[in-house]
Design brief:
Helix content: over 70%
Number of helices: 8
Number of strands: 0
Shape: elongated
Oligomer: single chain
Length: about 240
């Protein structure tokens, strides 16, 4: 295995860890525990499945950490293509999304404290605590909507690096650019026209598979090592007889 292919597979493996962990808090826990428009039922579900909810908090922290290691692995793979773009990729795709993930955990922690109650919360009735818990869960979602901006923006430098690299197929770069625009569309819809958020998400879903195609290519195919073409020196000199 060449060094380039090894670096590609390492990046693909780290990316796969992120793809496995992210849906836990993004999709599974909301669909399992949250009841739309019913704060009391949502609070009761969280209280009854506290361990599962805590797993969601841990997954957010794990994803924030993995984002940093993923972009560093991709930086090592692409720094020879364009170092400035590779640094921009680390900032937009690693540092900033990780910060949002770490800060967003506070919203879930606050919701859990309200659901569990406690002496210092005795001034609030249970319906009030449930409503406040739902507020923090909504804030968590709004921060995810804001984070989607960075989920989209970092794919642009990554896509350009893939397209220019010559050791990965160019169609992956094109797909990643489309993937980036899809995230931006979902984010701005959630911020400006939240009533259409789910509809836009469903329409954009095929574009979001660009990242998964990129991950699978890195894991299965790796990367093609570049060969250096040396100029021909012509036929060997004939011995003078």
């Amino acid at each position: 295995m060449t060094l380039t292919s090894k670096n590609a597979r390492i990046a693909g493996f780290v990316y796969l860890l992120l793809a496995i962990a992210a849906p836990v808090r993004l999709a599974y826990i909301p669909s399992t525990l949250f009841v739309q428009g019913n704060a009391a039922a949502t609070a009761n579900n969280i209280a009854a499945h506290e361990t599962l909810f805590r797993v969601g908090i841990a997954s957010d922290l794990f994803c924030g950490t993995i984002c940093i290691f993923l972009t560093l692995a991709l930086y090592r793979l692409f720094k020879g293509v364009d170092q400035n773009l590779a640094v921009l990729m680390v900032i937009l795709g690693g540092i900033l999304p990780a910060a949002i993930d770490f800060f967003n955990v506070l919203n879930d922690a606050a919701a859990l404290l309200l659901v569990r109650g406690g002496d210092f919360l005795s001034a609030f009735e249970k319906p009030q605590r449930d409503a406040l818990a739902m507020l923090f869960l909504r804030l968590h979602h709004q921060e995810i909507v804001a984070a989607e901006i960075f989920w989209g923006l970092w794919l642009f430098p990554l896509a350009i690096l893939v397209y220019r690299s010559r050791f990965l197929p160019r169609f992956l770069g094109v797909w990643l650019i489309i993937n980036g625009f899809a995230y931006l569309a979902m984010s701005f819809t959630g911020l400006l026209l939240p009533q259409y958020e789910d509809m836009v998400g469903n329409i954009a879903f095929p574009a979001l598979l660009g990242e998964m195609a990129f991950v699978l290519w890195l894991l299965i195919k790796g990367a093609k090592e570049q060969t250096v073409n040396t100029p021909s020196l012509g036929p060997p000199l004939q011995a003078i007889g």
